[in-house]
């Protein structure tokens, strides 16, 4: 079961944004997230807003989804081109990044994903060198599909590898054969696509040797990018119920820390260096620019049921169920369920909370002096080995390896 949507004010049915959203927009990139809410099987640990196609029908089905998403893209283009918003300073911006996530986006045929990308291109245009990513399960694509995606303008594919150990995959309810990974990665590279692989550590029953096996297998694929996420057991998921009943052990924080340190050792040794706490890239240009835009506070429109968007300090989220989502768009209404406008304090807290996770760190007071109280906090964090001392002296927080393990605690101290 996906988590409940947050509370917020009721957005207008036409999706119109407050004029404040235009402030500073010329200095921010515009990205588009396309949510495809379909999976063949819902994994026991997953709390994303996903559905099996058998649960849906009509305009909410996978067969009709590309056209439904196009309707929201058209609405988004109208909202951002609103005369009052443009007069307030909203520029016409080509899209810098597109990310198709899910769910399993490649449950849709390549022509549908190409059509959704085409709708984005028609609405705003794509910037020169735009990054266009789709997620994919290893068993949901073949060489022909990857070639078709590259021909349509996709530049990058992120494979949900999760583990190379069959027993760990079984605990996660993942259905792909890990032996298929070398084939799909080779097909993607032959098509000219950059390759990322996603890993999960801390699955109940996973040993340190299991995790090393997965890391070694990922490195052997010679990807451009690796994401390594600690498993979080969410309430409301099947795995959450198994842990609650004592059928599976709860992941251990110390075990997760050891596995993160091993990931740093193995990935760095293979030439993949961290640029965000959970993300590693071979070269700076291989970092996921779409996710960097999230962490740096740029603008993005999230298309799809349950998708979240952010433009100029205005954040909103769509209705969750695909059937309700499709129905609202069919009737010319925005699918937004709620929104909030961030105040100056909330925006500053978010800037620090997200920026501190980046290898470049975050300026505590851009262009200004750091208050004495905050300077003392940073000095103490450096003394404890959680942030780099050199940048700290200049008012910038950059995490050490130990600091990455305790990133949430660092953020709490900085924002207390």
From TrEMBL:
GO annotations of cellular component type: cytoplasm
Subcellular compartments: Cytoplasm
Principal location class: cytoplasm
Residue ranges of every copy of the Radical SAM core domain listed in the record: 24-273
Alphabetic keyword roster: 4Fe-4S, Chaperone, Cytoplasm, Heme, Iron, Iron-sulfur, Metal-binding, S-adenosyl-L-methionine
SMART domains named among the record's database cross-references: Elp3
GO MF annotation: an example: metal ion binding
GO biological process, one term: porphyrin-containing compound biosynthetic process
Pfam families cross-referenced by the UniProt entry: Radical_SAM (PF04055)
Top-level taxon in the UniProt lineage: Bacteria
Region described as Disordered: spans on this chain: 1-20
Family indicated by similarity: Belongs to the anaerobic coproporphyrinogen-III oxidase family. HemW subfamily.
Its biological purpose: Probably acts as a heme chaperone, transferring heme to an unknown acceptor. Binds one molecule of heme per monomer, possibly covalently. Binds 1 [4Fe-4S] cluster. The cluster is coordinated with 3 cysteines and an exchangeable S-adenosyl-L-methionine.
PANTHER family per record: COPROPORPHYRINIGEN III OXIDASE, RADICAL S-ADENOSYL METHIONINE DOMAIN-CONTAINING PROTEIN 1, MITOCHONDRIAL
Name the UniProt record assigns to this protein: Heme chaperone HemW
């Amino acid at each position: 079961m996906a988590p409940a949507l947050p509370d917020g004010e009721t957005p207008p049915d036409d999706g119109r944004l407050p004029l404040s959203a235009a402030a500073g927009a010329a200095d921010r990139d515009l990205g588009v997230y396309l949510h495809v809410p379909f999976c063949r099987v819902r994994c026991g640990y997953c709390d994303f807003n996903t559905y099996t196609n058998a649960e849906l029908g009509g305009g909410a089905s996978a067969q009709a989804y590309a056209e439904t998403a196009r309707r929201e893209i058209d609405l988004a283009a109208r909202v951002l081109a609103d005369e009052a918003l443009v007069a307030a300073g909203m520029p016409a911006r080509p899209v810098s990044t597109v990310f198709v996530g899910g769910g399993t986006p490649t449950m849709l045929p390549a022509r549908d994903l190409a059509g959704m990308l085409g709708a984005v291109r028609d609405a705003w245009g794509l910037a020169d060198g735009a990054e266009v990513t789709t997620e994919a399960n290893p068993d949901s694509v073949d060489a022909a599909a990857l070639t078709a995606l590259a021909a349509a303008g996709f530049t990058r594919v992120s494979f949900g590898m999760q583990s190379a150990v069959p027993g760990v995959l079984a605990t996660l309810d993942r259905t792909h054969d890990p032996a298929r990974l070398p084939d799909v990665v080779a097909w993607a590279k032959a098509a000219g696509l950059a390759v990322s692989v996603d890993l999960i550590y801390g699955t109940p029953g996973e040993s340190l040797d299991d995790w090393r096996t997965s890391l070694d297998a990922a490195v052997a694929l010679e990807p451009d990018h690796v994401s390594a996420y600690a498993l979080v057991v969410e309430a409301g998921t099947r795995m959450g119920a198994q842990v609650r009943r004592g059928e599976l052990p709860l992941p251990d924080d110390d075990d997760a820390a050891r596995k993160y340190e091993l990931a740093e050792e193995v990935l760095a040794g293979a030439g993949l260096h961290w640029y965000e706490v959970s993300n590693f890239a071979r070269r700076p240009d291989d970092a996921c620019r779409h996710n960097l835009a999230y962490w740096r506070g740029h603008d993005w429109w999230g298309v799809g049921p349950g998708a979240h968007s952010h433009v100029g300090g205005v954040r909103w989220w769509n209705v969750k169920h695909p059937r309700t989502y499709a129905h609202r768009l069919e009737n010319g209404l925005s699918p937004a369920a709620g929104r909030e406008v961030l105040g100056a304090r909330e925006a500053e807290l978010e800037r620090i909370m997200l920026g501190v996770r980046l290898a470049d760190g975050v300026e505590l007071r851009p262009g200004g002096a750091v208050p004495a109280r905050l300077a003392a906090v940073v000095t103490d964090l450096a003394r404890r080995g959680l942030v780099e001392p050199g940048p700290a002296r200049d008012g910038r927080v950059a995490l050490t390896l130990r600091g990455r393990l305790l990133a949430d605690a660092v953020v709490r101290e900085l924002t207390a």
